[in-house]
Design goal:
The chain is an alpha/beta fold and 311 residues long. It has helices at residues 3-15, 18-25, 29-43, 59-87, 99-104, 107-116, 129-137, 213-225, 238-247, 256-259, 296-307, and strands at 48-51, 54-57, 91-97, 120-126, 143-148, 160-175, 205-208, 231-235, 252-255, 269-272, 281-289. The protein is built from 11 helices and 11 strands. α8 (213-225) links the parallel β7 (205-208) and β8 (231-235). The protein is elongated, with a radius of gyration of 30 Å. It starts with a helix and ends with a helix.
């Protein structure tokens, strides 16, 4: 028994005609007739008596009609309550994230949220982690998504909550012409060959700006490996770093999600994993203020993240 079947029987009974009911329901008359026969076969009972004056309910049909009307009223009431609860959610939700996190991790979540709660004014601020943290401290953002590197100490005050959403590793990217794969080792459980960073000791690196988390993380890992390769140049964008590495005899380091995306496809490069003990990863974290109860718009966003985890 489905809501459509209940509605079919109710509409035929109200119209006293399968033809009129089919037109009202926007279905073909043969389809509606077959649906009624299927229902009657499942019940083992006849629901309608067909006469020259019209189509009328049998005694069993009357009982089915009353049941259908009751269930449909409950169901429609539920749908209306659900719609009303969504339409009651209003206000402003200010979200901060780096361009990378918003593009590669939040697009689906924010799109789903905006679709479910159209009356909430979602404002997305895209800055680097340091800038977002400052804006957040000034109270201008409700929550922020940031990168947290393994070398950072947890100094959050008790008034703030930080949740780790997912972990992402960075990989070494080298032009295929360097043929570094000769020195790499395939890992039984890894998707990328493992390369000892000692093999890039004398190879130039395309580095990022000092204010960027990715630069700080890569420097941290190189220090742990006791490798200090020369610098080819500095850039800010991931795409620039990839293109420069592919077109020169230099290497760079880029995050996994970017390298798996369409923006990185087609370049003549090799991608390598590095020793995991170097901790070349960052955690994507959600940070917000602790409080007894959150505004409805923010609570629903937090609920959505719980229901559809970001990976």
């Amino acid at each position: 028994m489905t809501s459509n079947e209940l509605l079919y029987v109710k509409t035929i009974a109200d119209e006293h005609s399968i033809t009129k009911a089919a037109k009202k329901l926007h279905v073909s008359q043969p389809s509606l007739t077959q649906a009624v026969r299927r229902i009657e076969d499942e019940l083992g009972a006849v629901l309608f008596t067909r006469t020259s004056a019209g189509t009328y309910l049998t005694a069993t049909g009357r009982r089915y009609y009353e049941m259908a009307e009751e269930i449909l009223n409950i169901y429609m009431g539920f749908l209306q309550d659900l719609q009303d609860s969504r339409m009651d959610i209003r206000g402003v939700l200010s979200v901060g994230a780096s361009w990378y996190i918003s593009t590669y991790f939040l697009t689906e979540a924010i799109t789903s949220y905006c679709r479910e709660y159209p009356l909430v004014d979602v404002r997305l601020t895209e800055k680097n982690t340091s800038e977002l943290s400052e804006i957040f401290k000034q109270g201008e953002l409700d929550l922020i998504f940031t990168h947290r590197c393994p070398f950072e100490r947890d100094t959050l005050p008790k008034s703030l909550i930080r949740r780790s959403i997912t972990r992402e590793h960075l990989y070494l990217v080298a032009p295929a012409a360097l043929e570094l794969s000769r020195h790499a080792v395939m890992q039984p459980s890894g998707t990328k060959p493992l390369l000892d960073l000692d093999f890039i000791r004398h190879i130039p690196v395309v580095r990022f700006r000092e204010v960027q988390r990715i630069r700080q993380l890569v420097d941290y890992a190189l220090d742990r490996a006791q490798v200090n390769p020369p610098t080819l140049l500095y850039t800010y964008g991931f795409q620039n770093a990839l293109e420069l590495a592919a077109a020169s005899d230099a290497v760079t380091f880029l995050p996994e999600r970017f390298l798996n995306g369409p923006a990185a496809a087609g370049y003549p490069v090799e991608i390598f994993d590095v020793d995991r003990s170097l901790n070349l990863y960052w955690d994507i974290c959600l940070c917000y203020r602790s409080q007894e109860s959150f505004p409805p718009a923010m609570q629903r966003f937090l609920d959505l993240l719980e229901q559809t985890p970001i990976t």
